[in-house]
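**Reference record**
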Amino acid sequence: MSPLDIALLLGAGLLGGAANALAGGGTFFTFPAMLEVGLSPVVANASNAVALWPGRFPSVIAGWHDLMKVRHRLLRSCTIAALGSLAGAWLLLATQERVFTALIPWLLLFATLLFAFGAKLVPLFHALKPRNGGRGLAFAVSAGFEALVAIYCGYFGAGAAFMVMAGNAMTSVDDVHQNVALKNLLITLMTTVSVAVFVVAGIVAWRATLVMTLGAFAGGYAGARLARRLHPGKLRFFIIAIGVALTVYYFAKVYL
């Protein structure tokens, strides 16, 4: 890697780690950086997942108290998350590079829309939860939705947190703190499964990944310290603008 590549990966990791600590959306910085240093799309996606993976665990530990309040549903949710993300990671390995290249702008568009409007899914799905009857149907629908989310997370994953929280709301996780804690656990589990698949498959570019991980650690620490100083709305707007710009750029790069 050239010094410029190292600087790009460190900078992207720093911004991605800080964004994840503050408002989410770190993949908008890190995945394109992996592409720009010359990695193939599938390898870039896998390496990006590995680079951001260690930063998932502090959020799980921080929400452990709230997580114990929904322990009655952990077995079901964790099983669906693990199996779905395993299928998603396997699907990524089976995807040809040219096919995944064509999918990149669409995946970025989907992730941008999720980041921009995903929070609206939570009250919407909360309204869909069963009141008096239909619990069997609701269970089947919610399980199917959770499986699709897990497959997406194993395959690409950007913006999946909002979808997980929406699914939780549909299955009567009403308390926002419990919902966030469960979301953090499930996202971490799904990422762990997919990372394990990528490592075993040997498609991780370790030098680029380790450089970006260093930046992500520093960014996560800085983001945690800045969390009380920055306006979350303005930060979200900035990340959405980055997502829109990247989506337009990759649509032009791939299709023009």
Q: What stands out?
A: Residues 176-201 form the longest helix (26 residues). The chain has a mean pLDDT of 85. The CA atoms of residues 84 and 150 lie 5 Å apart. The chain has one domain: 3-255.
